[in-house]
Amino acid sequence: MDEGGARIRRRVRVRRRSRPSLGSVCAAPTAAELEPGDEEEEGEEKETVVGSRREKPVEVEPAQNNDSEEDMFGDYDSFAGNSFLAQVDDLEQQYMQVPQLRKHASDLTIEDLCSGSIKHNKLSITTVGNFTESKVDEHTKNQSRHKDVFIEPEPDLLYDVPSSQVLYFENLQKSSNDLGDQSTKEKDWNSSSHKTGNEELPQNSTEHHQQIDDPCSKVGTSSEENRRKSLKEHLKSAMTGNAKAQTPVFSRTKQLKETLLSEEINVAKKAIESSSDDLGPFYSLPSKVRDLYVQFKGIEKLYEWQHTCLTLNSVQERKNLIYSLPTSGGKTLVAEILMLQELLCRRRDVLMILPYVAIVQEKISALSSFGIELGFFVEEYAGSKGKFPPIKRREKKSLYIATIEKGNSLVNSLIETGRISSLGLVVVDELHMIGEGSRGAILEMTLAKVLYTSKTTQIIGMSATLNNVEDLQKFLQAEYYTSQFRPVELKEYLKINDAIYEVDSKAENGMTFSRLLNCQYSNTLKKMDPDHLVALATEVIPNYSCLVFCPTKKNCENVAEMICRFLSKQYLKHREKEKHEVIKNLKNISSGNLCPILKRTIPFGVAYHHSGLTSDERKLLEEAYSTGVLCLFTCTSTLAAGVNLPARRVILRAPYVAKEFLKRNQYKQMIGRAGRAGIDSIGESILILQEKDKQQVLELISRPLENCYSHLVQEFTKGIQTLFLSLIGLKIATNLDDIYHFMCGTFFGVQQKILLQEKSLWDITIESLRYLTEKGLLQKDTIDKPKEEIQYSFHITKLGRASFKGTIDLAYCDILYRDLKKGLEGLVLESLLHLIYLTTPYDMASHCDPDWMIYFRQKVDKDIVNRLYLSFVLYTLLKEANIWSVSEKFNMPRGYIQSLLTGAASFSSCVLHFCEELEEFWVYRALLVELTKKLTYCVKAELIPLMEVTGVLEGRAKQLYNAGYKSLTHLANANPEVLIRTIDHLSRSQAKQMVSSAKMLLHEKAEALQEEVEELLRLPSDFPSIAASSEKA
């Protein structure tokens, strides 16, 4: 095998691009031209390996010059016995005769290609060459001794054949194998039918077959000539077409890589479909996936629990699965591998649902690089982003990464267009959120619709804080896997006064004494820091990181300032230059403004982190913390459920979130941030408590996690009513019995005995349908049935359809309709103010406390006035595009203003979809498209293309624009190394993610345009001529 492989490699290297003349092809090779590898080592006489081929005369008739289409190939166009096509025909003969040897040679060739020894993209060419050399029998040896002129079928013969002809031979090979299999079966059947007591019959048959296999056989010659004639006609026709067509230019290296990757994907696909335990190179995925994880994430080996989970029978059989592990246990990696299996091997789309916009953007950035390398799209569905229904891709599949609300809209659009079966997998992170308010209700109805409408869609749910898993298992019809694995050991401590106790479930009261806090505090410091936060923090910073969770946002800021006031001056020198860069970049993204608290704390490596910061500020501070420039964050509980920012030590300032006592789930999420895999050997959490809270805290650390309960009925307008409206609008269930049957399969239906005390599920169903009918969102139809039974069915009204397509809260849908209707009477387009008012979120008005001293006082409807006030804020923001100045002008936190802007952009998108369903509001459609875009980005027009890239916010967009990257194309073609040197405070990983995201977005747009072109040029299936011909047939 090695000798054959070496011979192939030598011949690949000496190939020439120019076509050999017919004379040179027919001339016998000289001794000097023969390769040393072609001689036998034992001193035997040299043999030229030949297949079953014809004699070739030395003299060749000159080709006639003819400009006709029939003779456009010159010397190659002759179909005489000495032609090039005759030689091709001979090679095809060899393909037909010995499929087993050819298959063996093909395997050897692929093995050599995988090892990188052959740099060629035509696999079948080298296969033919290898096969030709390996076929030597006694008959061909005799021929070589008695013939004066012969041709050695070098690989160069096929080297110059167009790629379509090579593909033709490959197809011929497949058909040959099929025929071979069929004939083998027939022989076996005949053999078994005529078998006698003589056991030597198979051997005699073989010998008889070899005797018959004579090139002079008259029967073989007759059929052979007919077959060759048809082959020549077919091949000549194909070559004529190829000569007219423009030959595309391919990159051999790229084509080879794609061929190998495609081969691995096919192997993996077969492995998944089979029941074999052999899962392929990397959990049924190409080995390239493993290499990418090493390259992009530094993951070289999976944890044992991850391997166990991925090889579960339930996973192999594509059953629904819920798995639960502690925070930082590596849950996401398992989900990613399962998603890649679905995208690459099963070739179906995937939906990943995440709780927050920031996490969606983080995941988009992380997976865009994989999409570029492996050939799938990564699409963002968050805020005002996302297309409904999603673009239907021709070949590449899509990974939709969505928030809970956008995931629901996406599923609705797929059901409506009959494409829900194209969704192969739905992954839900933080599954416990199904029990949290209106967002939990939306998540529940999304999963219930997937379960009801698509039996082939797999659902994977994961969480670190699950308790009543049995209910969730019953709802999702899922298997359950759990482990207590944590890559870094976590030790929990409680601090009471100066004493620190370790949490110990085996101890009588749940804790054992650990140590006394050794700190020397001055009287001033004791008053300022009675909880010894400075002492606890300085035990780990600045060499390690620390998170301090505080009950309120204001407390975060105060604690950060207090800690810095008593820190040593030595902390100022730790990574001093980089901290100055952070301050400089904060000023740049805020038009020269900087929070005075951050200005004082960042030089010490300390900052606060809560929703009062803008997105740009939060992102910049998170990057500085991740790289170790900042070593301490004072933060609220939202950070525990948001982006992944682990620390060596986590301190809980008090067992409260705002004014409410800490829940077990919240506590587990906060302390789960302690311990960074690959960096820390241990993680610590310290909960500070007072004597008065001691008993409650002991119960907190010992009690089980809180149960998840459905909020489908509790959240009336956002829950069960919205669900019924979508069920009828999507025609999933349109009569009372079907709707009730659907409700029984929901999470609420599973828990109805626990949640319903006074009313039954049937009563609640009837009551909700009656409410929707009275509100004008549904209409009731009567269906007469035999046996004098009357059954009602429902259909959705125009207002109802607009409400569910726009995902408008049903509490406001009639108010929105009235406002838009009234707006048509005198729509003011001199400025954007009127449109902004119409798209200001209703639910934020109740949280607004206007300072009317800034504008005016008047006695009107409070909600209208509050909404108008927020409209002024948004209008001023769009004009000035500076959150800091607007924050000062209206005396509002800049974080709140940004939340208002985000909410307005999302609501504007909802109102746009609402208006698209109602013809009377046609005027709003064009207006709201532009307004939504302005609210989404709130920057100058030239920065909008750059901000479409995930992770690029206003500050970064300005930096890129000023550096010359003024469009998506510029950024997609940027060199990450150049970006690092050009853009301040940009890490290598961020630069790579940014470029990958831009490439992904560019590919999506190009693919969409290409599909649109093909759709326009495609002949309609209902075209009259086609319909007429089918009727005649």
Automatic annotation (TrEMBL):
Residues 35-45 have a biased composition (Acidic residues). This is Helicase POLQ-like isoform X2. PANTHER family: DNA POLYMERASE THETA, PUTATIVE (AFU_ORTHOLOGUE AFUA_1G05260)-RELATED (PTHR47961), HELICASE POLQ-LIKE (PTHR47961:SF12). The keyword Nucleotide-binding applies. The gene is HELQ. Residues 312-484 form the Helicase ATP-binding domain. The keyword Magnesium does not apply. Residues 1-71, 176-229 are annotated as: Disordered. Residues 190-205 have a biased composition (Polar residues). It catalyses: ATP + H2O = ADP + phosphate + H(+). Residues 46-59, 206-216 have a biased composition (Basic and acidic residues). Residues 7-19 have a biased composition (Basic residues). Pfam families: DEAD, Helicase_C, HTH_61, POLQ_helical. Residues 532-724 form the Helicase C-terminal domain. Keywords: ATP-binding, Helicase, Hydrolase, Nucleotide-binding. It comes from Vulpes vulpes. It comes from the Eukaryota.
